[in-house]
Amino acid sequence: MYIQTPAFLTPFEARAILFSSIEPGHFFWTAEISHKGPLKTLESILSGDYPAEKVKSIITSIRTAEVGQILYEIEKAGAQFLTPEHEHWPIGVNQLANPPIGLIVKGDSTSLKTPTLAIVGSRKPTNYGAQVASEFARAFSDLGWAIISGGAYGIDSYAHRATVQANGRSIAVLATGIEVAYPKSNQKLFNEMSVHGALISELMPSESAMPSRFLVRNRLIAAIAKATLVVEAAFQSGSLRTARDAAELLRPVMAIPGPINSVMSQGCHRLISERAAELITSVADAVEFIGTNQ
Q1: What is the per-residue pLDDT across 77-120, written as a single tens digit (0 to 9) for each?
Q2: DSSP E strand boundaries for the chain
């Protein structure tokens, strides 16, 4: 049973308990942890310092939590729990208004310290989009960059697969725990990525997908990446959220143009017309643009 006083815990253990009990991306709690530290935040929660309606479900989770079991579940999944003190922590996420409490990483955590390009886009790309995503992933892999995306169908999968085939480092930020393949058909790809790169999640290993978790994880893609490339996206697309998150962090954002009558290029054209992204037509363009924006 969980010992309720933080006096017997290390900051690392307190952070693990908070990580397992608080939904990712919560602005209030991430601010509290950043300001007070994990031990003091945990103590404040258990001492009743916050309104009951704000902490009821969190207290229930904390009081049944066992830090040994939390860390065992992560280790059993073949992963490690990274905190901001870890040497491989991706420091870009510290710029977020709601940084992760921690990260579960399966694979080579040094990938998180490699210059990284985010390639995002539609789950239902055209052949053109699939080809472009693969081309940019291979080219940047050859330049020594890691490629990061969300592990979903479509542009994400094409970018991940091309990177693995090029023997590059591919990183997937999941909206589930690392033990839950979503989509299931990408299980083999995820297995390969955990060898040639990493799988990242800010959820406990067996947690399933929820609609809100996809948008929340997009901010991590934008924050970990040095630059973001949108290949194909509809007018309303989660990929545009990733692009705007990257722009808010003052990272280079690029978009690939397509036919003017292509529904799958409307989002890219929207970013370009709003001057939220640079129009890119070649790998050389992307390299030059990223270089001039550092």
Answers
A1: 999 999 999 999 999 999 999 999 999 999 999 999 999 999 99
A2: 80-82, 103-107, 116-120, 146-149, 169-173, 197-201, 227-230, 253-255, 278-279
